[in-house]
Amino acid sequence: MQTIDTYAAAPVGERDDEGLGLLDIAATLAERWKLLVGAPVVIGAATLGLSFLIPPTYTAKTTFLPPQQQQNSAASALASLGALAGLAGGAVKTPGDQYVALMQSVNVEDQIVERFKLMERYKSKYRFTARRQLEDNVRINLGKKDGLITVEADDKDPQTAADIANQYVAELRRLSSELALTEAQQRRAFFESEVARTKTKLAAAQQALQSGGFNASALKTEPKAAADNFARIKAEATSAEVKLQTMRRTLTDTSSEVQQQVTLLAALQSQLSRLEQSSASDRKEDADYIGRYREFKYQEALYELFSKQYEAARMDESRDGALLQVVDVATRPEYKSRPKRAFMAIGAALVSGVLLSIFVLGRFVWHQAKAMPANADKVKRLRRAVGRG
């Protein structure tokens, strides 16, 4: 086998017409085996030594089960489509995806940045840069098969890594309690506000009734039973209207349930109109007292009705399982997760070996091409182009 120098010095007619072959490559690499073996070993050893200068990074992990929500009407309708539901599968998000998005929100990240003083820890001038570095150090994944959410946090301090991972779960509990995520939570929040508003109006109606004093003639003109009946019908009409608004959130106006509720509301409003017209001829002094009494009884009945609906919504919310169930609490990691020193040393040795092999082969091909008379003019032009001619 000819070496590089003998191959380049040989007359053109005596060279192998097939160009660079496998034997040429093997011979060229074999002649430089000391360089191709020794240099990668030295580089790998140097990389291993330098890796000890990198501060170790610890990873803490916590796993929890997100709240399980009951299937709503939209999901039930989609499931009834059977095989066609798969066409829309990419657009349907699971509750787990929603909770992962909440943990990745700015609300949660800002709380963690403030609690652990990450701007100082990461030496960040701006809050958004601290949030970005926090996102790089924290991984939140949802298991597609088991439905478990995993939070992995990296930090130079092992205890801080465990605290950050556990704090994500605590912040998710706080945020989910403030937001109405499920249908039961939305009803609970709605009736809670209605109870508070009705309670204020009930107190005002009671004060107005007490300030008016006792009016015997008004009681004779409009007995207590009539006033109670008016207040009851008005409260039922308000309740029917609220129920109709709630149904329209999940059902269409053409559904039988909505149509039935619309008919019931119209009947109650018609009864109220007749009662109001029948009492329009009462004397003004009696009407004032009766109006205050009616308003008081109406607000009282409405307060009782909303209170019952609020308690029922709270029971439904508790049945939805709105509690986070932690499977594995993040504990202080005992061993570092990075840097992987052996992997770095082996990788550096392999990469340097490949690069050196390419360099040796490229040098061989260059000498081979330069030794051919047909390429003499091209070599001169190349040298002139790079400033060496």
Describe the structure.
- The chain is an alpha+beta fold and 389 residues long.
- It has 3 domains: 91 residues, no CATH class; 118 residues; 137 residues, no CATH class.
- It contains 16 helices and 4 strands.
- It has a 4-stranded antiparallel sheet.
- Helix 10 packs antiparallel against helix 14 and helix 12 crosses helix 14.
- The protein is elongated and about 120 Å long.
- The two termini are 33 Å apart.
Strand order of the largest sheet: 2-3-1-4
Strand content: 5-15%
> Total helix count?
16
Q: Given the helix and strand composition, which structural class is it?
A: alpha+beta
Assembly state: single chain
Please tally the β strands and state the result. 4
Topology pattern, helix = H, strand = E = HHHEHHHHHEEHHHHHHEHH
Residue-averaged pLDDT: 76
Largest sheet: 4 strands, antiparallel
| Shape field | elongated
| Low-pLDDT residue intervals, each spanning 5 or more residues | 1-18, 71-92
Integer count of domains:
3
Radius of gyration: 40 Å
In short:
This protein is α+β, with helices and mostly antiparallel strands and 389 residues long. The protein is built from 16 helices and 4 strands.
